[in-house]
Write a structure and sequence with these properties.
The protein is of the alpha+beta class. It is built from ten helices and ten strands.
């Protein structure tokens, strides 16, 4: 019985690989997507990285622009019109960001302003569980959910599993849509999924995530397991909420409302 189960498992994976073969070959031409994240002596270290977004300091679309531009320029995120756009960090209405929290009598400044969105780097990430090739995985060292594009076969199971819509699929070659290429960060190709990586490549160099650096204090980043970290100090002081907490994914992105 055990042998039969193993056969069915490997046969299924093989068929999936054959079906996605053209995409896999394309992805294999990438620069290795982990080589740029090797830690240096000056690397920032933590065992559970997290972010706090102070929404009181981000009220207009113009407040978000420097953060989004910083992220997208560092990571070669293409500028493509919706619905085929690639999103690492973006904004949306409160009713979409915090469904179930709608209150028609809420203050106008809270109810009708944009909110920042990115991958939540969940403590219990459903996207990791469904990935058939382990292209998406959670780093044991610091809890960041990352992707190895070499292994992505474009099945999009991770997109279906993510309850936050934090992943985008490259329906076309993104290269012509990159405004200014950052040659220190790998490009992607048509047929693979991508998302925010909490700037693992910058942490490896001892730098804060690009959006945090550009936020002028509106984003706070740090180690949840360190009681003296800045995020822990903020979480002790301020009332915060997370997106869809009832799902049990344990997001590592918190919002001060």
């Amino acid at each position: 019985m055990e042998t039969r189960r193993k056969f069915l498992k490997y046969a299924g994976v093989s068929l999936l690989g054959l079906a996605a073969a053209p995409v896999s070959r394309a992805a294999a031409s990438y620069i290795p997507h982990e080589s740029h994240t090797k830690s240096r002596a000056e690397a920032l270290t933590g065992s559970r990285w997290a972010m706090v977004i102070d929404t009181r300091k981000l009220t207009r679309e113009s407040d978000f622009k420097p953060l989004i531009e910083a992220c997208h320029s560092v990571h070669n995120v293409p500028d493509i019109e919706p619905p085929l756009d690639i999103k690492w960090i973006w904004t949306d209405k409160k009713e979409h960001v915090f469904p179930g929290k709608h209150n028609e009598f809420q203050a106008e400044k809270i109810e009708h302003k944009p909110y920042l969105l990115l991958c939540n780097h969940c403590h219990n990430p459903p996207c990791v569980r469904v990935c058939p090739t382990q292209a998406t995985f959670k780093r044991e060292s610091d809890g960041i959910v990352v992707m190895d594009m070499h292994r992505c076969i474009g099945c999009r199971y991770c997109m279906a599993a993510c309850p936050y819509g934090a992943r985008s699929f490259n329906f076309m070659d993104p290269s012509p849509h990159i405004k200014e290429l950052n040659r220190e960060y790998p490009e992607r190709m048509r047929g693979v999924v991508e998302k925010c990586n909490f700037c693992v490549e910058r942490l490896a160099e001892g730098k804060m995530p690009a959006c945090v650096e550009a936020s002028d204090g509106a984003l706070i980043f740090g180690d949840l397991d360190d009681p003296y970290s800045e995020v822990r100090k903020v979480l002790r002081k301020e009332y915060t909420i997370r997106r869809k907490p009832g799902l049990g994914t344990e997001p590592n992105v918190y919002y001060i409302i």
